[in-house]
Specification:
257 residues, alpha/beta, Rossmann fold, five-stranded mixed barrel, 9 strands, binds 1-O-phosphono-alpha-D-ribofuranose, binds uracil
Length: 257
C-alpha cells in the first residue's frame, strides 16, 4: 500500500496518522476532543467519519468519529489498523443501568455484553469481549487524578437504541425486557452501542482498545434533555481520555528506551 493511498471510508492515508487514536461516535465531538491536543487540525471528512490530528507532546494522535453502532465502528477501526494505528481509546457517552452509576459519572467498561451482531463476524459468542487491561488501568488512573466519580464494570452493547428505551412497544419486547433484567441483575453498569464490537475486533486484530464513557443519565431515567445535552459533563470524559492517552504514550516511550 502506498503511504498516500486513501482508505475507502475514512479517507485517511498512512502518511496522515500515527499509532494512537481516539474514537468518539459523534462527529461533533471530534473537534471538542481535538481542542485538548496541541496544534490540532481537521485532516479528513467522509460519511460519518470526521478526522482531526493533533499532538500529545511530540506524538501524533488522531481523533476519528466512528458513527453509531458496530458496523461503522468496525470499518473505522479496521481502516485505522491497516494504516498502522495500534492504540484506541473510545471517548463516548452511555446510559446508566445501575443505581451505582449517576449522570456525569465516568464509566470504564471492563467487559461488554454482546447484545449486537457485528462482533460475531470476528469471534464466536462464547469469546468474552474485554478491553485492553493496560489501557483500562490508565483510564482509571486519569479519572482518579482528576477527582472524578467513576465506575468500573460490565457494559451492555446493543444494536438498537429505541428497542432498549421502549422495549414494551415492540413485538419482541418480552424477550428484550427479560434479557435486560438479567443483565442488570448480573451487575451491568451501563449501556451504549459500540463497546462489544470495539473490544472484540481490536482483540482479534492484535491492537489495544478501551473506552472512557460518561453516563448521560441516572438509572431508570431517560429524560431526553439529559440524553441529548450532555455537553457540560462531556468535558469530564474528554479530559479523562486525553490524560489516559498521555499516560499510555509516556509508558510506551519508557518501555521502548
Ligand atoms: O458515545 P457516543 O458517541 O455518544 O454514542 C452513544 O450515543 C449513540 C446513541 O445515542 C450510540 O452510538 C451510543 O453508543
Ligand atoms: O441513552 C443512551 C445514551 C448513550 N448511549 C446509549 O446507547 N444510550
Amino acid at each position: 500500500m502506498q503511504d498516500n493511498q486513501k482508505m475507502m471510508h475514512i479517507a485517511l492515508s498512512k502518511d496522515q496518522v500515527g499509532k494512537y487514536a481516539f474514537l468518539p461516535g459523534s462527529p461533533e465531538r471530534v473537534p471538542r476532543i481535538a481542542a485538548f491536543l496541541r496544534d490540532s487540525e481537521k485532516v479528513a471528512q467522509n460519511r460519518e467519519h470526521t478526522s482531526y490530528r493533533g499532538y500529545i507532546g511530540d506524538t501524533p494522535v488522531m481523533v476519528v468519529s466512528t458513527g453509531m453502532g458496530g458496523p461503522s465502528t468496525a470499518i473505522c477501526l479496521e481502516e485505522l489498523v491497516k494504516l498502522g494505528v495500534t492504540t484506541f481509546i473510545r471517548i463516548g457517552t452511555c446510559a446508566s443501568t445501575s443505581a451505582l452509576v449517576e449522570r456525569g459519572d465516568i464509566v470504564i467498561p471492563t467487559g461488554a455484553v454482546r447484545m449486537e451482531g457485528t462482533s460475531s463476524h470476528y469471534l464466536p459468542l462464547e469469546y468474552p469481549s474485554v478491553p485492553d487491561y493496560s489501557l483500562v488501568k490508565k483510564i482509571e488512573e486519569a479519572a482518579i487524578a482528576q477527582g472524578f466519580r467513576y465506575n468500573t464494570g460490565v457494559t451492555i452493547t446493543k444494536d438498537s437504541f429505541y428497542t432498549q428505551t421502549e422495549p414494551e412497544t415492540r413485538p419482541i419486547g418480552y424477550e428484550l425486557i427479560n434479557k435486560w433484567t438479567a443483565y442488570e441483575k448480573g451487575g451491568a453498569t451501563s449501556t451504549s452501542m459500540e463497546e462489544a464490537l470495539l473490544f472484540i475486533a481490536a482483540t482479534s486484530l492484535g491492537v489495544r482498545a478501551a473506552s472512557a464513557l460518561i453516563s448521560a443519565t441516572n438509572y431508570k431515567s431517560y429524560d431526553q434533555d439529559n440524553i441529548l445535552s450532555p455537553l457540560e459533563i462531556e468535558k469530564r470524559v474528554i479530559i479523562t481520555g486525553v490524560e489516559a492517552m498521555r499516560l499510555v504514550i509516556e509508558e510506551d516511550k519508557r518501555k521502548s528506551r
